[in-house]
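*Target chain*
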Amino acid sequence: MNASDLTEDQHDCLQELINVAMGQASDQLARYLDTFVYLRVPSIEQVRSENLFDSLNHDLKATAIVSQGFFGYEGIRGEALLMYQPLDTNRLADLLGYEADELSFDEQIIDLSSILTTTFLNVFARQIDNQMSYSAPRLLSTNLNKVNEHLQQQSFNWDYALKVKISYQVTDYSFNCDMVLLIPEEAITNIKTVIDRILADFERC
């Protein structure tokens, strides 16, 4: 076991924090978008850098990919990738309440991605008494090499990464997209410290 591995208790605690954040974020998104938003049970896995892009390649059969960095207190940080399938990009203007020619497709997809990313991560951050800041969202090429190049340009140690995948479904618009959070090795250690504090507080109750 390396220093960034999660114990069973840490994994279960993180899963529960994410589940609660998903529920609250789903409610907020439904109110904002005025439609029901369903979030599937997330997957959490730790991947090595040499396997990371193979795992992303399985996910990256997308028309559009938007990347946005996030940064919290206590060294919690990472990169969020929002991935949209071809059939899911046709009704963005309707979903966001825009007129057909009000914004370009790129502007619409970036706008929605920022909403999805920040809503979930802000709720998650509040649970751990943290606060997130964000880089400007960036629309990437769907070419895996371009995504790889983008992530390698970040100032992260990608020997290991924690990969959290969350799927959004907006049933009224037949719309689906996936959000993948990539948390680098050094930030995993910091998250473990926060989780251990939460577990210790729980044991004292």
User: Anything to note?
Assistant: The helical segments are 8-33, 49-59, 92-96, 105-127, 144-152, 185-204. The chain has a mean pLDDT of 81. The beta strands are 37-39, 43-48, 64-72, 77-84, 132-134, 138-140, 160-170, 175-184.
